Amino acid sequence: MGDSLDRSVPRERIEDLERPALDDRSYRIVTLPNKLEVLLIHDPNTDKSSAALDVNVGSFSDAEDMPGIAHAVEHLLFMGTKKYPEENNYNKYLTSHSGHSNAYTASTSTNYYFELASKHSTPTSSTSPSPNATQENLSITKEQSPLWGALDRFGQFFICPLFLEDTVDREIRAVDSENKKNLQADTWRLHQLNKNLSNPAHPYNHFSTGNWTTLHDEPLARGVQIREEFMKFHEQHYSANRMKLVVLGLENLDTLEEWVEEIFSEIPNKNLPRKRWDDVALYTEKELLIQTFARPVFESRTLEISFLYRDEEEMYESHPSRYLSHLIGHEGPGSILSYIKAKGWANGLGAGGSSLCPGSGLFNINVKLTEDGLKHYQEIVKIIFQYIALVREREPQKWIVDEQIGMSKVEFRFRQKSPPSRTTSGLAAIMQKPYERKQLLSAPAVIKTFDAELISQAMSYLRPDNFRFMLVSQEFPGDWDKKEKWYGTEYKTEKIPEDFLQEVKAAFEAKERPSELLLPHKNEFIPNRLEVEKKEIEQPLKAPKLIRNDDSVRLWWKKDDQYWVPKANVSIHFRTPMAHLTPRTAVMATLYRELVNDALVEYSYDADISGLVYEFSNHSTGLSVSVQGYNDKLHVLLEKVLVQIRDLDVHEDRFKIIHDRISRSFRNWDFGQPFHQVGTYSRWFRTDSSCMIEDLAKELEGVTAQDVQQFFPQVLAQCHIEILCHGNLYKEEALKITDLVEKTIKPRTLPPNQWPVKRCLILPSGSNFIYERQLRDPANINHCIEYTLYLGNRMDPVLRAKQLLIGQMTDEPVFNQLRTIEQLGYVVFSGPTAGITYAGYRILIQSEKDCRYLEGRIEHFLTSFEKTIDEMNEDDFEKHKGAVISKRQEKLKNLGQEGNRFWNHIFSDAYDFLQAETDVENIAPLTKDQMKEFFMHYISPSSPRRAKLSVHLIAQKQAKEPTLDEKKTKLSTVLTTICKAEEVVSNNDALKPRIDAISSEADISSAISTHLKDDLQLSTEQVDKIADEAMAALGLANAGLPGEVVPADETMTCTGMQGGHAKEPVLITDVHAWKAGLQMSAGVRPVRNLEEFMEDTAKL
Ligand SMILES: [Zn+2]
């Protein structure tokens, strides 16, 4: 132990935190001399370590004239530190240890976190089993632990950040691009509108993301030194006493404490106060009693009622607002939702209180309206007030709170682990709250006491003189006369008309109200039987057992042998081609699914709030039902769901509502984020049968309630049933559940030769296709490309190993080149992509630059990567292997994750339960030469044999083209960034006159080259590379694509396609003809004989 733990200096150590029953972590809270409060977590079984630091400053502290500054500082903090000046040093370190990092800026806090492998992983050492019970007694040295290096890099951000000059503009651009990504998203738009309509004196009113104008142009115009301003913000608001640090590792608490002390004691403490906003109201009289009508991008209809409420942070023993949200948000019989749903006015309802900051809070009620509901919104407001009056006229009901207390305790007691970075990031934020330290884990979740007084106070806020509402719809009222400043949302706002307000008051005060409105009845789903029979297990089973396999049913079962929670998962697949024969049957199956779910809302609500949920879904190979949660009453819910599935009575009125809801979701689909849409297109090209939304939308129009009523019994009439029972269930229970399924549905058997075969289309070797499509949202400015290379059949384990490894090897370089250096856009993804039998590699970019330009930059990157592989040393190569292996070996954190993994392998038809192990075995022996060969064959643009398809989604609106002056300004920062990445010393003094001399766009290229050649004396090869990257970052590089792409000759046969078109891209125009020309892969088959999974009969 180091001297720093000298016990002669008394330090308070809080270790006895209230914790879940099965939590095997140990906790310690200490405060360092600089007043940094730290929570240390030792987890003897973790394979990932993590740390998070939360600073009690956020966008509420933005300067009035520089909205977004807190967010920009969050971005810039990572740009180099005194100790580790290289700007991507931190991420490189994390990536080489299978790690990642992230950060977010909230209203009153900024949260930074990372996660990485707990141990150094080398392919040789990692194949031996890792759990090691004696680990906690050994102290781990800094060199042995990847965590130490990460903590040291992380800590420097708060000790001596450099805010590197040349990264400032670039990070402001990243913020700008992040904001542009959100511009067309309704959640952001409506949230901001609500903010803008609050008291201008409250910081909630402001715009928090920031953009190029607020963070760059305007400050510059005012003569502000931007970087200085960021540093000043940091200087003013960041202080050790405002920070909370959480570190989770394999190391014991003393070691962690010593490390944390050594690194984080250096953070300066400025003794800054915790900010509060007590004396400024969120809504003043001016902002209350207003009605706002807003027009969404999506075709959605919602009514949101907001009450000015209070901040309940200090009331965590009783959580009073949960009494109100429980009753108002209830969905069972007697509830508001049940009543307005029966009238055909609503599809959903939610309610809840939120503390916005110390000193302010809101209570919101949100209703999803039907078309009819929109017409009756005023009546809905009145009904809500009638229900509130019903709640308020009674004393706070102790039995209701007792139910909540009981359930919250059960949930906490059996809470399972979540991933390390979620744990640390979440707890660091929670530590900012005034919770008693021993209750840090439990306080946010558990209701401890019934406090009638506090509940009565809470109820007093829900009054007709203390609210306002917003109605969101594309149809009504149509005369929006204003535009919100930051997102451009059209809206109209005015005082609630006096006559309507009087009606609301009358409804609230009347003793008469609809007899349908009632308090909920006792919840029968609260679990009582919570026993788990725990046994000593040497090695948990890695696969479920096959305990029944006949013509009708295949049943898989595994009794939980490692998580010991009183929970279970039951998943059922009704296998039949009927649900997806044509777009029409697919649409009918979708309507059926939604109608069943709709019919179960009231019944399943009690189960839902008691930790028991079900899901019913349709897909290309049939229908599925799953039930998950406490096993005590699981069969009760399952039976009800099955009966509903069998006996659904399609009512005309509900059908109309559901039909409208689906039809809107289809219409909304192509207004979504382009990078969300693009995957659907890529998948469309991978299989024969998948259909696009537009095909489904066409079919939907003609389908009637009667059609669905006649259709669904046909789906269930003949099918094969496959079931997984997993968790706290004995074999007899699994068999019983299976009987229940069979007896309830009673399908005829479907012969195995009729089971749908899962397979994909094969992209031929030597092909190069482009599919172009214009995006429908006219206001969207972001293009999106998904560039995919087909690698082969995913069932081939060696190929899959190479696919995973190449994904890891290119991960950081893609991001660094295309996002950081070339600044193509905020959304840049790369890595393996998989279909059923499809193994691919893809790069996805969402950008204001056009798709052909992006295509060129991707090819340019891939070409340059050949050299990167050549130059990669063996050590780095082994690190990459280690990183993928450790990802594949990552432990499952809870019962749900294990159940999902089993079900995925069953549902895929491959039953490859040991896939992770197989992958590790196949990655370990891979050599650099093999990877180079793989890359040169399947990925390199120079390969005549690779198979490529890219989808280009083209925005209608053009982003504003930067002026020559803007490009010139950008050029100097761009060059500094690239020179640094290329390890070349830049020379801004020599560069400046060259930039000044540029008088037209045509001069830029030669100015760069001359500067690199004459001023920096670089070799021709370096000059070419840097010049090209600089031109790319300015959006001026040669796209490398012909202006006109040749349309595909759809009559071309497969062999025709193989004929060496690899160089010139071919445009897909007729998708059907194109698909018809492709061959199919072999279908998925079990990787092992299923008999191997049968239980050893001798043991029975
Ligand atoms: Zn950000």
Word description of this protein:
The chain is of the alpha+beta class and 1100 residues long. It has 5 domains: 13-121 and 141-265, Cytochrome Bc1 Complex, Chain A, domain 1 (2-Layer Sandwich); 290-396 and 450-509, Metalloenzyme, LuxS/M16 peptidase-like (Cytochrome Bc1 Complex, Chain A, domain 1), CATH 3.30.830; 545-754, Cytochrome Bc1 Complex, Chain A, domain 1 (2-Layer Sandwich); 762-895 and 910-959 and 1043-1080, 2-Layer Sandwich (Cytochrome Bc1 Complex, Chain A, domain 1), CATH 3.30.830; 964-1034. The chain is built from 36 helices and 28 strands. A 7-stranded mixed sheet has the order 9-10-8-11-7-13-12. It has a 7-stranded mixed sheet with strand order 23-24-22-25-21-27-26, sandwiched between helices. Strand 1 (26-31) and strand 2 form a beta hairpin. Helix 1 packs across helix 8 (226-237). The longest helix has 26 residues, at 583-608. Mean pLDDT is 91; it is low at 123-137 and 1051-1060. Zinc ion binds at residues 71, 75, 175, 178.
Write the layout of secondary structure elements.
Elements: E1 26-31, E2 37-42, E3 48-55, H1 69-76, H2 89-95, E4 100-105, E5 110-117, H3 123-126, H4 146-159, H5 165-182, H6 186-196, H7 212-221, H8 226-237, E6 243-249, H9 253-264, E7 290-294, E8 302-309, H10 321-328, H11 336-342, E9 346-357, E10 360-369, H12 371-375, H13 377-392, H14 398-413, H15 420-430, H16 452-459, E11 467-472, E12 482-483, E13 490-495, H17 498-509, E14 545-549, E15 553-559, E16 567-575, H18 583-608, E17 612-619, E18 622-630, H19 634-647, H20 652-669, H21 674-684, H22 693-702, H23 705-717, E19 720-727, H24 731-745, E20 761-762, E21 767-774, E22 783-793, H25 797-821, E23 827-834, E24 838-847, H26 851-871, H27 874-888, H28 895-907, H29 915-923, H30 928-938, E25 947-954, H31 964-981, H32 988-996, H33 1001-1015, H34 1020-1033, E26 1046-1047, H35 1054-1057, E27 1066-1067, H36 1071-1076, E28 1079-1080
Parallel strand pairs: 2-6, 7-11, 15-19, 21-25, 21-27, 26-27
Antiparallel strand pairs: 1-2, 3-5, 3-6, 4-5, 7-13, 8-10, 8-11, 9-10, 12-13, 14-15, 16-18, 16-19, 17-18, 20-28, 22-24, 22-25, 23-24
